[in-house]
Amino acid sequence: MNILLTNDDGIDAVGIRTLYDRLSPIADVMAVAPANDQSAVGRQLSQTVDLYEHELGYAVEGTPGDCVIAALGSLDFEPDLVVSGTNQGANLGAYVLGRSGTVSAAVEAAFFNVPAIAASVYFPAGQFDFDEFTPEPAHFGEAARAVEFLVEHASNVGVFETADYLNVNAPLPPATGHAKMEITRPSHVYKMDADHDGNGTVRLNDRIWELMAEGSIPDPVGSDRRAVIEGRVSVSPLTAPHTTTDHEALVGLAEAY
């Protein structure tokens, strides 16, 4: 199997190196990833990008979307699968999918008709000072194990006949054994708000992280965030946006127009 590996944390991030080392024994892996951190850029694209050789493959002065398009469109490498990650931080909830560079790389691959897996690790809110924190390969162990399992088995049982990509979120490795895996759907709980300081500055707040730190999440059973908070690997099978559906009322409006 040929695997194109990318991410949004940058090609020198610990998470992508951990996946590269984990997948290399079972596949021909080539990394084409941003030269620096491109977190939360969504599907942002550039018109031109600089690409140069790296020990893992190629570094790109651009976004995760740039990396996927550059690799699939210009390089002599035809992957059977695109893997994006492993991201340092969870990508949970429907509202996050379009913001995440990690997930957006998987979406971009889907438009090329190449199946993809986006992988992220949940670092419990309140337990880590992210301004001072440097992750280690062990933090990504459960996610790497889950991705390896899916790489080896998902295509063989027809998973990608109905799903364009899988959004995988893993907890930190448990003290013993490994986490269970749950098939989930993205949570639709949304807790964004904003504060105006009266001087022209508005602070945007994602209150979900506060609730996660408290351990009081409102997400229903079967949702991605609940699974991860409770210590399971969440796997959400998704299709590339944007799916259209028949809408009788809208047809009526068009006829009236």
TrEMBL record:
<dbReference type="InterPro" id="IPR030048">
    <property type="entry name" value="SurE"/>
</dbReference>
<feature type="binding site">
    <location>
        <position position="8"/>
    </location>
    <ligand>
        <name>a divalent metal cation</name>
    </ligand>
</feature>
<dbReference type="Pfam" id="PF01975">
    <property type="entry name" value="SurE"/>
</dbReference>
<dbReference type="GO" id="GO:0008253">
    <property type="term" value="F:5'-nucleotidase activity"/>
</dbReference>
<dbReference type="InterPro" id="IPR002828">
    <property type="entry name" value="SurE-like_Pase/nucleotidase"/>
</dbReference>
<keyword id="KW-0963">Cytoplasm</keyword>
<protein>
    <recommendedName>
        <fullName>5'-nucleotidase SurE</fullName>
        <ecNumber>3.1.3.5</ecNumber>
    </recommendedName>
</protein>
<comment type="similarity">
    <text>Belongs to the SurE nucleotidase family.</text>
</comment>
<dbReference type="InterPro" id="IPR036523">
    <property type="entry name" value="SurE-like_sf"/>
</dbReference>
<keyword id="KW-0547">Nucleotide-binding</keyword>
<keyword id="KW-0378">Hydrolase</keyword>
<dbReference type="GO" id="GO:0046872">
    <property type="term" value="F:metal ion binding"/>
</dbReference>
<comment type="function">
    <text>Nucleotidase that shows phosphatase activity on nucleoside 5'-monophosphates.</text>
</comment>
<feature type="binding site">
    <location>
        <position position="9"/>
    </location>
    <ligand>
        <name>a divalent metal cation</name>
    </ligand>
</feature>
<dbReference type="GO" id="GO:0005737">
    <property type="term" value="C:cytoplasm"/>
</dbReference>
<feature type="binding site">
    <location>
        <position position="87"/>
    </location>
    <ligand>
        <name>a divalent metal cation</name>
    </ligand>
</feature>
<keyword id="KW-0479">Metal-binding</keyword>
<feature type="binding site">
    <location>
        <position position="39"/>
    </location>
    <ligand>
        <name>a divalent metal cation</name>
    </ligand>
</feature>
<dbReference type="GO" id="GO:0000166">
    <property type="term" value="F:nucleotide binding"/>
</dbReference>
<feature type="domain" description="Survival protein SurE-like phosphatase/nucleotidase">
    <location>
        <begin position="3"/>
        <end position="188"/>
    </location>
</feature>
